[in-house]
Amino acid sequence: MRVPLSWLREYVDLPAGETGRDVQAKLVAAGLEVETVEQLGAGLKGPLVVGQVLAIEELEGFKKPIRYCQVDVGQANGTGEQQNIVCGARNFAVGDKVVVVLPGAELPGGFAISARKTYGKTSEGMICSASELGMSDDHDGIIVLPPEYEVGTDAIELLQLVDEVLDIAVTPDRGYCLSMRGVARETATAYELPLSDPALLDVPAPNSHGYPVKVADPVGCDRFTARTVTGLDPEARSPIWLQRRLQKAGMRPVSLAVDVTNYVMLEIGQPLHAYDRSRITGAIGVRRAQPGEKLTTLDGTKRVLDAEDLVITDESGPIGLAGVMGGANTEIADANETAGTTEVVIEAAHFAPVSVARTARRHKLSSEASRRFERGVDPEATSAAAQRTVDLLVLLAGGTAEVGVTEIIAPSAPHTITLPADHPDKVAGVPYGRETVVRRLQQIGCDVYGADDLTVTVPSWRPDLTDPNDLAEEVIRLEGYENLPSTLPQPPAGRGLTERQRLHRRVGRALAGAGYVEALNYPFLGEEVLDQFGLAADDPRRDLVRLVNPLSDTEPALRTTLLPGLLGALRRNVGRGEHDLALFETGLVFRATGDEPPAAILPVDRRPTDEQIAGLDAALPHQPRRVAVVLAGDREQAGWWGKGTPVSWADAVEAGRIVAREAGAELIVRQDQQDPWHPGRCAALLAVVDGQEILVGNAGELHPRVTKALGLPERTCAMEIELDRLEQAGVGRVEAPHVSTFPVATQDVALVVDASVPAAEVETALREGAGELLESLRLFDVFTGEQLGEGRKSLAYALRFRAPDRTLTAEEIAASRDAAVSAAADRTGATLRGA
After folding, report:
1. 722 Cβ contact partners less than 8 Å away, ≥ 6 residues apart
2. Where is the B5 domain (predicted)?
3. Residue 338 confidence (pLDDT)
4. Residue 343 contacts by C-beta under 8 Å, 6 or more apart in sequence?
5. Is the pLDDT of residue 603 over 70?
6. 334 is in an annotated binding site
7. % the chain with pLDDT above 90
8. Beta 302-304 vs 325-326: how paired, if at all?
9. What is the 3-state secondary structure (H, E, C) of 720-744?
10. How far is it, in rounded angstroms, from Cα 470 to Cα 459?
11. Distance (Å, rounded) from C-alpha 741 to C-alpha 801?
12. Residue 359 reports pLDDT greater than 90
């Protein structure tokens, strides 16, 4: 909404020295978004006067028509002699009044005017167009003024060229500010000044002599006012002051009748429509359109109407889209036409916001009227707006207002809200007090009654005020958001992160400490990547939860694994020159079971019941929390110390162990075959839950066909593990280890086993056999060679023994060591190397 400051002053008696910037600051403090303050006429200096064309000489021999004009500017040039001016425009004739800028003046943009020789003549000034004066973007020709203005009159004041215009971005809840009346009300409240309400007019009572109107849909149209004006001068033009106000507000002058309706809409906020009475057949009606009906709107487009469209009709059919745009068959005739309009019927109606909004979007037809109806228009202003339009047409076009007044009103009661007087205090945390609350609510037009509990009647122009919090917001904004104290919320004591959240954070910190970088990805997935993974048709990861309205057609489902997003991030980084990468991500995956019931639509006017919320939860797919890592390139950089160490499947397995340690779980590693991993370099990660081993994840090197299909580096490794299952296998909160003061005893053993025996199985047997005295166990060497025999390997382990309460004797250490070796021999067939 563009608000000229000179127009705003008609309704609010602002201090004389108040500028647009001052008003902007006040309105912004009151909650309005005033984006800019435009300075019209900045840099404009006179003399700029009214002149009359006395003679025109056509200059020939040039590429375009040029005219040499003699113009009378009165005493504005100091001599009273005529000015000789060269001009290329052709939309004026001898005797016309024009706007002349004389030498010594300066136009907007720093364009200085002086006498200069051009086209073989000396031009003593310039005849101006609207674009040259910053009035509009019209370049068609110069300004031709009505003949009543005297020669030599100051055109700067006449054309109101110097002004300030506030550009306000009106939010959907403040539709009343799409009018001078609404902005003036906010300004008057901000300055604590009285308001001259333009809608306070004497309106005649409705009678039976008005133009006949039939409203068949009182829900879509609850109020309709019709007035008739006859005897209009078909050649009457909009006065300059009216045209200038429309231009400053961002609208283009069209014709007197149309300009008047637009002016009243900007002034009061009520959209209006003027029909040429001679083009209306029978009574005006309001109804829903019939399927297949057609209407040609004022923009010249022929539209096929929908059954939900609210239309204005006469006996011939639809003549307008209610609240959006009128029809071309009842359009006001332009003054340039042979038969101008002399009788008009003025429509001022109130239409349902939802109906207008849907019609405008259905036909992709947004208008100034629909913008206002969508946001809510004051239904009580229809009579005043119609009366204001009648008064202006009578005044400016010499018309006569007929005595007939048609007014159809659907019965309705004003909206009331019960509000505790201290409710705004509780919302803002500021003690406003009852007097302040009542005063502020009265300033916005509310009627307030009561003491401790206030009964508030909402004004008709504020349909956005529906509950106590809306009223509290009005009090707070008018008292000033800047006056609200800056306070932090105080959470109740005893609450913090859940164990699941703590584990999630510990895992993230541990992986980051191990050199991994977190990469957050969108939780969306396409079936193409599952094909590239080589997943079988019955793989559970193919049971996708599909989105009704996905962000991308290539990823229409929710992820069932974290690997596609992580591998995509790794591929992008490799493509940008980063080759040594270790990425991780923690997040939810979505597994559909097929047993989910359809989700019910919950109510929006009240809190859902516990049963409804439980039903909604039951409709959700299973969402386990997972963690995954991907690795590529070198784990250790090359340098003077030697070659770099490339990542391997063992690094992916170790990432799983890092996660398991944070959960306090013992991870069991066994060989496995699982897509998309390499069948010979894939490990199954298991944990013990309730005495049973369960699969919690996989780790290893990706299959070569997968790396090729995804464009990944060779030997890329990955690990994915389910945190929820790992948490079940854990010991709960991980406690800090006890530091013993007694010495440690280290024993090394080298065991020879078959090459097919996993090292993890040997390690498990050693741990169980060593008993409680074993503090830690570490594999530090794997050896194969001819001396061991074909199909045999040597595993060397370092065993650390320690007791919490004493120094171990050599006999105790030897017994524990022998027990560990014996257990390994029984379970894996291991023998001591060299024995």
Report:
1. 624, 625, 626, 696, 697
2. 412-486
3. 43
4. 228, 229, 230, 231, 232, 276, 277, 278
5. yes
6. no
7. 63
8. unpaired
9. EEEHHHHHHHCCCCCCCCCCCCCCC
10. 13
11. 13
12. yes
- The CA–CA distances, whole Å, from 169 to 31, 767, 808 equal 11, 73, 82
Residue 470 annotated as binding?
A: yes
Contact 216, 416 (CB under 8 A): no
In single-letter form, the type of residue at position 258 comes to V
d(CA 188, CA 200): 16
Rg of the chain over all Cα atoms, to the nearest angstrom? 42
Give the tens place of pLDDT for each residue, 542-561.
988 888 888 888 899 999 99
- Is 474 annotated as a binding-site member? yes
Which tokens go with 406? 């048609």
DSSP string across 25-88: HHHHHTT-EEEEEEEETTT-BS-EEEEEEEEEEEE-SSSS-EEEEEEE-TTTTSS-PPEEEEE-
Residue 163 CB neighbour total at 10 angstroms = 17
| H/E segment holding residue 509 | helix 499-513
Alpha helices in 514-642 (DSSP H): 527-533, 563-575, 610-618
Edge-first strand order for the sheet with 33-40 is: 2-4, 163-169, 33-40
Which is it for strands 66-72 and 106-107: parallel, antiparallel or unpaired?
Answer: unpaired
Q: How many CA atoms are closer than 13 Å to the CA of 130, on its beta-carbon side?
A: 18
- The closest alpha carbon to 722, from 732, 712, 730, belongs to 730
In angstroms, what CA-CA distances link 676 with 580, 667, 701, 703? Answer: 21, 21, 9, 6
- 123 alpha-carbon distance from chain centroid: 55
Give the pLDDT mean for 171-191: 93
Q: Is 702 helix (H, G, I), strand (E, B) or coil?
A: strand
**Over the stretch 57-94, which tens digit does the pLDDT of each residue have?**
888 888 888 899 999 998 888 888 889 999 988 889 99
Q: Residue 339's pLDDT band (boundaries 50, 70, 90)?
A: low
Q: Is the pLDDT of residue 337 over 60?
A: no
Q: Please tell me the total number of residues recorded for the chain in this structure.
A: 835
> What's the CA gap between 820 and 749, in Å, rounded?
10
Cis omega (within 30 of 0) for bond into 47: yes
- CB 243, CB 4: distance < 8 Å: no
**Does 464 count as an annotated binding residue?**
yes
In angstroms, the CA 377 to CA 246 distance is: 20
Residues 217-250, buried b or exposed e (16+ Cβ, 10 A)? beebbbbbbbbbbeebebebbbebebbbbbbbbe
Strand order in the sheet with 284-288: 213-215, 284-288, 310-314, 317-321, 325-326
Q: What own/partner pairs with CB < 8 Å and gap ≥ 24 does 569-575 have?
A: 569/519, 569/521, 570/630, 570/632, 570/712, 570/716, 571/710, 571/711, 571/712, 574/632, 574/712, 574/713
Digit-coded pLDDT (tens) for 619-644: 889 999 999 999 999 988 888 888 88
- Terminal-to-terminal C-alpha distance of the chain: 96
Which of the residue ranges 486-495, 504-513, 601-610, 806-815 would you say has the lowest mean pLDDT? Answer: 486-495
> Residue 596's Cα: distance from chain center in Å?
32
Sheet with 453-457: strands ordered across: 416-420, 453-457, 447-449
Q: Which two tokens stand for residue 539?
A: 């793989």
- H helix intervals, 631-703: 649-663
